[in-house]
Amino acid sequence: MTDQPAPTSPPMLSRISDLVHRHRAATSILFLIILPLAMPYQALATNIIIYGLFALGFNLVFGYTGVLSFGHAAFFGVGAYGTGIMIVQFGAPWFLAIVIGIVVSGVTAMVIGALAIRTRGIYFAMVTLALAQCVYYIIYQMSDWTGGENGLTGVSVPTVNLGFVELNLLDPTTKYYFVLAFVAVAIFIFSRVLASPFGAVLEAIRENEDRARACGYDVQLTKWVAFVVSGLLCGLAGSLYAIHLSLVPIETLNYHMSGQVVMIALLGGMGTFFGPFVGAIVFLLLEDVVTSMTSHWPLVIGLVFMACVLFFPRGIWGSILGWGRRK
Predict the structure, then answer these.
(1) Structure confidence by residue, pLDDT tens digits, 146-183
(2) Mapping DSSP to helix (H, G, I), strand (E, B) and coil, where does residue 72 land?
(3) pLDDT in tens, 253-304
(4) Dihedral of CA 57/63/65/68: which sign?
(5) DSSP secondary structure of 136-197
(6) Are 54 and 182 spatial neighbours (Cβ–Cβ below 8 Å)?
(7) Residue 215 buriedness (CB in 10 A; 0-12 / 13-18 / 19+)
(8) 310: Cβ–Cβ under 8 A, 6 or more apart, which residues?
(9) pTM of the model
């Protein structure tokens, strides 16, 4: 009788990788709960989860559907302006203002998606960029409502009354966890979308659009629905951004914002669940540190971005997950 080799247990890194993958929403939220402890100040942590949510929504079409959009600043900015206008011009309560911001972003995504979805590749990217710039100039010209070049000021939500407790949003820690509550709900919904048959179709389209069409899936309709869901998530991020800053700068609609979310998604890892938040941490933390040292911070960030793309082609989080699965 020969001794059989004892089964070897999987390495620790592999087990952690599997655990994170199986419980991706819970582990993501748990990490974000303790994130402020690792940040130099709370306002930066709040910016990170808002930009992470923005990149999460963008990643639905970019990373999971394989469609590159250069117009997602439109949904972020429209969400911010929708919420801001409701609070400043109509005195609406904060919750209704956030809902309006999300709905307006969804409608904008429906229109832009319907016009752009018939194109593919670089043409899709250019059409979304052009339509987003149209949204920019419409908001810019509505200066009586939006503040024009100066942006919309006075988006003040100092306290939030939940019935059983009143939150003071002037306290940075309270504001962070207030924003995180919305981000956590969005993460859970995003996880359920990816785990559904709809999520599987998205990945099938990303891998081979023609084969997915040959299997009987309505590719254009699926891509349009993904575009709208993405716009809703980005609109929520914009609404939270308006409440966080108490103003809405016109730069939220600029094409620079669309380029920034592409960089964040690539840094973190396109097509990975938690990659957008990793990208937001790296990008915003680096920006915060470098701007305090030199006025040439875009050059430094550009060099770091190039290095990350060269040495981490799957993004930082995507590379970490890949190493964990190979061990």
Answers:
(1) 988 889 998 888 888 888 888 899 999 999 999 999 99
(2) coil
(3) 988 999 999 999 999 988 889 999 999 999 999 989 888 888 888 888 888 8
(4) positive
(5) HHHHHH-HHHH-GGG-EE-----EEE-SS-EEETTSHHHHHHHHHHHHHHHHHHHHHHHHSH
(6) no
(7) exposed
(8) none
(9) 0.91
